[in-house]
Amino acid sequence: MKHVWMPSRRNASALLVCLVSAVAFAWDASAAQAQTSTAHPAAKGALVRKSHDDTNAAHSPELTLASLRPGRDGITKAERLFSKPESTADSGSSQLWRDLCAHETLSVIADSEGRIQQVTVARDSDFPGLESRKDCRVESNRVHWGTGHGLVIGDPSDRVVTLYGQPGSQGPSTKGGQKLELSYYAFDWAGPDVPQVMTVLCTPGQEGNAGRVVEITLAAPSL
Fold it and tell me: pLDDT tens digits for the chain (223 residues)?
């Protein structure tokens, strides 16, 4: 007759405790692994975002305005990008384009060799309102006439600091009788091969509201 081992009540209780402990340990290990697998990407993403913020545009010089790089690009590039200018002066070394839809002007000054020395984008004083035109494209030239880091006419003035940090100097200014605030940035710390000077004119803030960007100028180091 085959003998079957039957555990005593004492042995059965000990065995049950061991089984429960093993299951609990396995459950805790599985939960910890799942928590790590879900939490790690988020933590990694946070690190990536922090690293991105630490190396944002505020730590970089501005190189272009309206897709033009002063000191490097020729005035022929502006003509190729924006077709025939609306007006020229100084034997063609100074040219101006007007965006009737965005109410903005783009002016370019070049040296005697045709190399661009200064680019200015400004709100068009001839069209101060925001009246619509049926023949205007939705996108207009707004993006194309912004800085390399994305600053455009009409942006809140506090976005200038967000993109470029605190200016080297700041103070009141006027244009056409309008009171404005001028921010001056010198990028000489970036070396002699990049545009080193940018000025931004903004309307003053009122009643807790930020002012607005009305003019941006980027110039080569020679100016």
Answer: 444 444 444 444 444 444 344 444 444 444 444 443 333 333 333 333 233 343 456 778 999 999 999 999 999 999 999 988 999 998 888 999 998 888 899 999 999 999 999 999 999 876 544 455 555 655 555 567 999 999 999 999 999 999 999 999 999 999 988 999 999 999 988 887 777 899 999 999 888 888 999 999 999 976 4
d(C-alpha 195, C-alpha 191), whole Å: 9
Domain ranges of the chain: 9-55, 60-219
Q: Residues 18, 26: contact at Cβ < 8 Å?
A: no
CB of 84 closer than 8 Å to CB of 95: no
Q: Say if CB 132 and CB 141 are below 8 A apart.
A: no
List the one residue out of 213, 198, 222 whose CA is nearest residue 63: 198
| Contact status, residue 109 vs residue 46, Cβ threshold 8 Å | no
